[in-house]
Give the backbone structure.
Amino acid sequence: MHTRDDGPTLAYINRTFVREPEWIAAARAAGEQRRPGMQISAYEGHLLRWLVRVSGAKRILEIGTFMATSTLWLADGVGEDGKVTALEFAADYAAAAVQHIAASPHADRVEILHTDAHAWLAASAAIPTYDLVFIDAEKTGYARYLEAVLPRLHPRGFIVGDNSLLFGALSGEYPDAASAKAKASMEAFNTTLADASRFESVLLPTPEGLTVARLK
Ligand SMILES: C[S@@+](CC[C@H](N)C(=O)[O-])C[C@H]1O[C@@H](n2cnc3c(N)ncnc32)[C@H](O)[C@@H]1O
């Protein structure tokens, strides 16, 4: 199935189901100006928020925040008693993300941490804390992120990884679309999560590919 961002299938889904609040659209517009194509689409944000709401996830960790567009979709899903901890290692992106969170209705649900996610995970306690972890940072890091976040996930917690089709590099459609290191990392990420003895998982064919797995 082809669900290109500019294709008729997604256009239909978007106009029928997806309503991006204006305070998320403002973060998106700032992100598109700085680095076009870095953020999840409104359709993917809507999907993430739906997953958060139907799963009842209350404690969320996001790895790779950029302007906080995805963070805001997650925060809109967790409800008043939920919390999103979002990690971003670029100082200017983290500062802009803080501003976008402050301008939203959900400032009390989000903490933006300016940090390298690998270092932060290595330094923080590996105890089950999160109901859902959303990974959307450098593609060479996904296998390491998965290893580090699994001990921090509650029983039946969710791992969600964006770009898990790696721009066609894993299917072979566009073999040169990613580096060998990124391919090895994402292949390990997907293969681990495809283990049906440990996870209930799917790889959704969104334009970027979204792997969603729940611990058994
Ligand atoms: C694809 S963008 C995230 C987009 C965002 N999730 C959204 O959809 O709105 C990836 C972000 O991860 C950040 N990043 C990359 N490596 C990181 C690391 N090791 N620790 C923390 N952030 C990292 C980058 O600076 C970049 O802002």
The first helix runs from residue 8 to 17.
